[in-house]
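REQUEST ID: PR-0412
SUBMITTED BY: lab tech R.K.
PRIORITY: routine
TASK: structure prediction, single protein chain
INPUT:
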Amino acid sequence: MTGAKRRPRLYGDRRRWGLLEGDALRVLALLPDASVDAIVCDPPYGVSMATWDSGTLAGGEGFQAFSQAWARAAVRVLRPGGHLLAFGAARTAHRLGVGIENAGLDIRDGLAWLYGSGVPKGRRLPGGRSTALKPAWEPIVLARKPLDPATATVMANVAHHGTGALNIDATRIVADDPRVAGRWPANVLLGHDAGCAVSCALNCAVAEIDRRNPASRPSRFFYSAKASAMEREQGLDALPKTSAAIFAGSGHSLRANVHPTVKPIALMRWLVRLTVPVEGVVLDPFAGSGSTIIAAVLEGRQALGIERQSDYVRVAAARIAYWATVAERERGS
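STATUS: complete
OUTPUT:
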């Protein structure tokens, strides 16, 4: 069979989760109309980070065209009022947003994920100069498919399709006072530095915002999560390990999860709770090492991922299977 006709290989239990190996645009074309409740994804950034992020994608117009192409495919498979969350890079997020908007989705908000573990990627020059700042945040575009014209209102759309509104109560920030329901979730999300353990590392974004006013602890108004080396590797004992740097410019270590942009599971769980109806279906067309699918399984949602690179597929399938077992055990306890 030719590549165009070959059916993508499917991993998963086909009940709670599935992972399809193949190109996002090609596999999206195989999915039924209005078949998923939300899309949560980490697409290429168009910044020449890796082979899948280079070539025509590294140019502004090319990246925007690519963003529009996959977002147009996403519009078709989303239910009316279904939300889309897409991570981006600070310098190309405007192209991502325009592509998503031109595809027919309504931009609803822009979230900011702040962290302290970024490494400067600029070239060092004489005289204490360089070509770039240290990255410390990533934008997340929040968009929504237009409501069903037949329903007229958000409430009617929610009643008919289960989509159209954000799950605010499910994502409230826990308050210090147990009598309070929790604080309304903000569009700023804080992530701990990779070196945080019992206490925060010097450059941690969470600690930095509290350092300004320790009495009121401003960080408590925002959601906070971090990814550890242990989290990246859980479930991958049977896979071969490769010497690689977790962050650009950092020391090398042996690891099985070679994906360069692994998102924290706790962060992805929060985003899934925010946008995916209870027992709904979430799609990630750029599954990478599987963090979105893991988050969905842990949150009791059904999930489908698409990933074209076979080495990432192996990592994602093993990670998801591990966390699916954890979720099953927790539900049974």
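NOTES: The chain has a mean pLDDT of 84.
REVIEWED BY: pending
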